[in-house]
Amino acid sequence: MSDTQGNQENSTYDVVVLGAGPVGQNVADHARAAGLTVAVVERELVGGECSYWACVPSKALLRPVLAVADARRVDGARQAVTGAIDSGGVFARRNRYVTDWDDSGQVDFLKSIGAELFRGQGRIDGPRRVTVTRDDGARLVLTARHAVAVATGSGPVLPDIPGLDEARPWTNRQGTDSSSVPGRLAIVGGGGVGVEMATLWRGLGSHVTLLARRPLLPRLEPFAGELVTDGLARAGVDVRIGAEVTALRRPDPQGPVTLTLNDGGVLQVDEIMFATGRTPHTSDIGLETVGLTPGSWLDVDTTCLVRGVEGDWLYALGDVNHHALLTHQGKYQGRTAGDVIAARAAGRPVDDAPWGDHATTADQHAVPQVFFTDPEAGAVGLTAEQASAAGHRVRTVDVDFTAAQGANLYADGYRGHARMVVDLDREVLLGVTFVGPGVSELLHSATVAVAGEVPMRRLRHAVTCFPTISEVWLFLLTAYERA
To answer: Which residues are listed for NAD(+) binding in this entry (predicted)?
Structure first.
């Protein structure tokens, strides 16, 4: 692991960033581009959760599983798939993309932009002041002239269940950094992490039981969870909706885990993974020194400035502000906040009006998300239920992908569904959801339409290429016009 400790003689910087994941790197990059001096504090690997235990490793692991599934949907290609996936090759691929958990490349990026890295636990110690405690106990004080930006991310929530410690459960970290395939794996949680890990480990040969209290992917349109549930079941995953774990036992640390379920049933597995939510990494960063509650999500305005702290100097970006626990959305916040900090430092006006240069408006209106399951599920904006609850007068438009010849050429017997949610008063899209093989690459077109508030009458002039999966747009717009 590469290590730089920064110039300890200069402990005053324009901006101090807590957390060197993608979010922290973005705010540092934009602040440096504006000429501000920046210190970045990191207690683990530079690159954070996303680079080593979440987005990057999970997608590196999932791609071989989905590639084989895609091949099996095409006549002529499926005959070439004659064996099981090589798990060793998949793990080696993952290791390449996480650079064997060596963060020297990302350390070099921070050096290249002129930011200084300080390794250790960073804690706020009053206004514009951060202490850094290194592993060897040495302590350094950093002072920020203009801003401290908290980008410390989040960690997994584990339920309070008898026997939890004894069971030594997996979280997303073990789910993405393990290099052996458990014979039997129970996954608790039906959100994005749960369904992706079920797809992955079943594809690598594990017998997977997915336990969820409610239908899968509950924050998306209902049909998304239904199609993903069907896809998991077709792959051999035992999906149990309404199931809860009430107790765990693992008397032999090397032996199986016994789960007691809420219906009185018992399940025995080799490993159990919990994907039951996230909690912010704010319990040990000194929030109490500025009047905030340790361990809390941080309430921010549209410029990511933390509310309730005097002096307009504390910012919170990414998972910690609870707007959207997605790397790409956190990076967007980081870019915006870096520009805001620079503008305020220079005394320039801040454009925080909706869709302004210094407002994270997309956090409320155009958050895209993709789940790399089989089929894939992607969505941006509001669901029909969310839009109606927000007071919009809406029309939903639904089509099956079977209407698009491009989809059928992509995969024989292509199965998928798409929905638009239209604001009838303004004639613009409020939300779009796609479910089907390969739909992740369709999502940005929907994001542009939603974020850009492109009028429906103009969207009809965006001609779709034939024959592609994106032809589904033509059928959605035609269905809207004829409704």
So the answer is: 189-196, 277
